[in-house]
């Protein structure tokens, strides 16, 4: 239940050994005419240990939503730091390969959808759902975007950020399918609220729904360039 313990430990080992590997070991390899990068090889070997650990742990966590989600969150944070801080290469083995395995991946999709729907329930039932966060700042709030629409698009963006480093396009497309489902679900929810407001089509909430639809359509259009 604490994957961050070993994930953080590995990041510490990589960071703590970087100078020694660069200053002492790499010159020996270079002198011998080897193409091996000491730092990357050290990191790769430690990542292989993590893959073994994950392969053993994940079957025990698959049906505990809380622990499984926590594991996925910690693995994604680990991967981000591994690449951005320690210069790890995408061509080397990574935790995303474990998360892409069928049973694990399908479970990830299922819990991602479950928590996204819960988030949508809470954002639409909020008292501030149809109020713009920036209603008092005219130069920021040209589109009069209600809070629920902005929160929903942030939710989609966060999901993209979570799956963008998956190793295969087919897995990314499955996540895109989930996002399309969520967009359609949100559309249905907006339609249901709109039907309740048809008698007051110039009312505050009806206008907020139209602003929400306009904003979502505009943002999705902007995202169309993101392969």
Draw up the topology in text.
Elements: H1 3-31, H2 38-61, H3 65-84, H4 95-99, H5 102-125, H6 147-163, H7 169-196, H8 204-223
Helix pairs in contact: 1-2, 1-3, 5-6, 5-7, 6-7, 6-8, 7-8
InterPro entries: RINT1_Tip20 (IPR007528)
Pfam families: RINT1_TIP1
Organism: Upupa epops
Can you give keywords for this protein?
single chain, 227 residues, mainly alpha, 2 domains, 8 helices, 74% helix, RINT1_Tip20, RINT1 protein
Structural overview:
By secondary structure, this protein is mainly alpha-helical. The chain has helices at residues 3-31, 38-61, 65-84, 95-99, 102-125, 147-163, 169-196, 204-223.
In terms of DSSP E residues, the strand content is under 5%
Q: Unreliable runs, pLDDT <50, ≥5 residues?
A: none
Rg, Cα atoms, Å: 23 Å
Distance between the termini: 35 Å
User: Count the helices. How many?
Assistant: 8
Global structural class: mainly alpha
Most strands sheet: none
Overall average residue pLDDT: 91
Number of self-contained structural domains: 2
Overall, the morphology is elongated
What's the total count of β strands?
0
The H/E string reads HHHHHHHH
State the helical fraction. Answer: over 70%
